[in-house]
Structure formats: C-alpha cells, structure tokens
Amino acid sequence: MLNRGSARSLEAATGAHDNGFNLVRLIAALAVVVFHAWQLNRLAPMPDPLSRMMAPVTDLGNVAVGVFFLISGIFVSKSWLRDPHLLRFTLRRVVRIVPALFICLLLTTTLALAFHSVQGLAGLFDGATWRYILGNASLHGLRYIIPPNELTIPGVLEGRPLNGSLWTLYWEARMYIVLGLLGVAAIAPMRWWLMSMSVVLLLSTQLFPSVLSGYIWEVPMWSLFLTGVLLQTLSRHLRFGFAPVAVAAILLALNWTRNQALTPSGLTLVGIYLAAGALALWLGSARPRGLAHIQKHDYSYSIYIYHWPVMSMLAASLPPSVGAKTLLGLTVALTFLCAACSWHCVEAPAMRLLRRKLARHGGETSLRAAA
Predict the structure, then answer these.
(1) Which terminus in the chain has less CB density within 10 A, N or C?
(2) CA distance linking residue 118 with residue 294, whole number of Å
(3) CA-to-CA distance for 7 and 35, rounded, in angstroms?
C-alpha cells in the first residue's frame, strides 16, 4: 500500500497530490466515530477498547482530534505562507467550514424534528430551532461561554445534544484568528516570523498561561496546532520516514517501565501524542498506492460533522439491544453517504467557486491552499 521510496520533505509532500494526508484525516475521523459508538449505544455505554488502554491519560477521541489539529496547523499555515493576505485567508477558512456545516445542521435538524421530536416538522418555525442552527453555523460568534440554547433543541432527542462533535470547530476557528493576527503583525520574513512565534507561544502555554487565558490557552489542542505551524515553517528540511515512528515507539516503551511503577498507567500524554503524530506524519508524507480517490476527495470533515447526529438518531430508533459494533457499522455506512454528497455537492464546489473568484482578482488559486 505504501511506496517504499526514500522519504521526501514535508514541504514536497504537502505540496503534492499523491500524499497520504487525506488518508490520515479519514482515519482520524473514523477513530472519532469509533469513540462515540461505544459511548452512545444504549446496550452498554462504555469506553472503547483503545480508550481503555490509554485511560486515565487520554482516550481515542482526543488523540484523533489531536491529529486533526496537528495537520490543520501544517496546512492552514501553509495557506498563509503561500498567500499572506488576511481577507483571502479568512474567505478560504470560512468557505471550507461554513457551507457544509450549515447544510449539515439544516438537514440533521430537519430529520431529528421529523422523527425524534415532540413538535415534529412544525419545529422548523420555532425560534429555538433557528437559534441552534444559526448559533452553530456561526460557531457561536466565538464567544467563550456558549448559550445553552445553542447546543440543544427542546423536545428533540429528549433534550440531548444533537451534534456533540462541533465544539472542536469553535476552538479551531479561534486558532485561525490568532494565526491570521500573527501573520498581519509580522516584523520579519514570514516563515521565520511564524517559526519564532510558534516557539514563543508553545513556551508561553506553560510559562505564561494567562496571556490568552479564556481564548485558547486552556485547550491542549492549541499546542498541537502550534506544533503543526512550527513543522510547516521547517517543512523543507523535515523528512518523516519510518525511523521517527520507531523511535517514538521505543521512547513510549522506555517511558512505560518508569510510569507503570509510579502512576495508574504506563502511558503519558506526551508519549501518546508523540507516537500518534509521528505515525500521522509518516503516513501523510508517504505515497500510498491504490488510493487515488481518497487523495483527490477529502470526506473527513463531513464524516466528522455528520456522524454524531446520524449515530444519535440511529441509537434512538434501534432497539436498546443493539450494541456498539452494530451501531458503528450502520453509522459509518450512512455517514459515508452523507459525506460523499457533502464533498461533491457542497464543499468542493464552494472551494472551486472561491478559487475562480480569487483568480479574477489576482489571489492565490491553489485548491490545496484553500483546503
């Protein structure tokens, strides 16, 4: 499956069409689906097997989301480095996230009202429904305290969250804002400036946690996003072959012997993310064979935003005797269908339209920079 040729630079890999980063995103999205299937099934809600192995340090969902943030830091900073213009940068981010999110919210809310609510489709004319849809589509205005009426709809799914996965989009958008502001404030060549600021901010998360307290600091994923930015600034010099993965695994094993004697788990958060990050970057930098469709089409975002409502409605519709594995299989099948429709009918067309608009005004036109 993997081309075993010499490892190419991260810069070359992220600029090519034959890399494995879409595959990494897809695996991360499916890992989140697995994590939630064990939690949302009604037969025996419990942590999934991998989460039980990593407990109490972290869980499969957090590791998968961490990989998303690491890769996002790499590609979003690449977009800025290729075209450091705040308005165009903002447009790319908005077009990548919001159209598909709005359609997802509209469709899943309509289905939930039709089949899993007290009020039925009449709920579409209720202000609470539109507060939920518009509040989530606008990422809650990036407010720190999210109004509870933007997270649930009264009478729908017995008051449970209709889409509990969207919290990461709210935080990621904040990271985009900070990256854009850093870029605008550049007082040195852009690549060196982002490299320096990534290091400063990574240190500041530990030394001066009050600097951006209440905005992004308390979210551990911020450090992974910054690490992605730092890796992008060094990308022409970095090559991720199998060796970093092997070293990360060895360090994880060596650390296990110490921590197992001192803590409830032999694992550490840094060790887990180091191993997961090294594996993701190795696979992403490789040239996977036989995966041309995945390399061209990125279904991961829509899998992520659709799977929770699909899974929640399935769990509510199926007998309580249906366990995690059956719920997982049905969710993956239906969510892939939603994701394919979203990518081909909403996400890719929206990005192509923006690319054409920017081309007319002389903006950078790469679809990959907008991804």
Answers:
(1) N
(2) 40
(3) 32
Residue 217 burial by Cβ neighbours in a 10 Å radius (0-12, 13-18, 19+): middle
SS3 of residue 2 by DSSP = strand
Band the pLDDT of 365: cuts 50, 70, 90: very low
pLDDT digits (tens, 9 = 90+) for 234-291: 999 999 999 999 999 888 888 776 666 666 677 888 889 999 999 999 999 999 888 8
Does this model's pTM top 0.85? My answer is: yes
Listed residue (126, 228, 124) closest to 176, CA to CA: 228
- Residue 316: phi, psi to the nearest 5? -75, -25
Which distant-in-sequence residues (6+ apart) come within 8 Å of 77 by Cβ?
179, 194, 228, 229, 232, 233
Q: What is the pLDDT of residue 368?
A: 41
Burial tier of 126 (Cβ tally within 10 Å: 0-12, 13-18, 19+): middle
CB-based contact 194:184 (threshold 8 Å):
no
Residue 4 lies in a domain: no
User: How many structural domains compose the chain?
Assistant: 1
Q: Which residue segment(s) compose the domain that 78 sits in? A: 10-370
- Widest CA span of the chain, in angstroms? 63
Are the C-beta atoms of 17 and 296 separated by less than 8 Å?
yes
- Name the 3-class secondary structure at 9: strand
User: Who's near 188: CB < 8 A, 6+ residues apart?
Assistant: 196
Residue 194 lies in a domain: yes
Helix (H) or strand (E) holding 350, with range, is helix 348-360
Residue 1 counted as domain residue: no
- Helices then strands, counting H and E runs in the chain, come out as 16, 0
- Return the structure tokens found at 370: 């907008």
Beta bridge partners of 25: none
DSSP E strands, the chain = none
pLDDT of residue 281: 97
Burial (CB count within 10 angstroms: exposed 0-12, middle 13-18, buried 19+), residue 17: exposed
Closest CA relative to residue 149, chosen from 170, 128, 168: 128
Residue 83 CA to chain centroid, in angstroms?
A: 23
Asked if residue 297 is part of any domain, the answer here is: yes
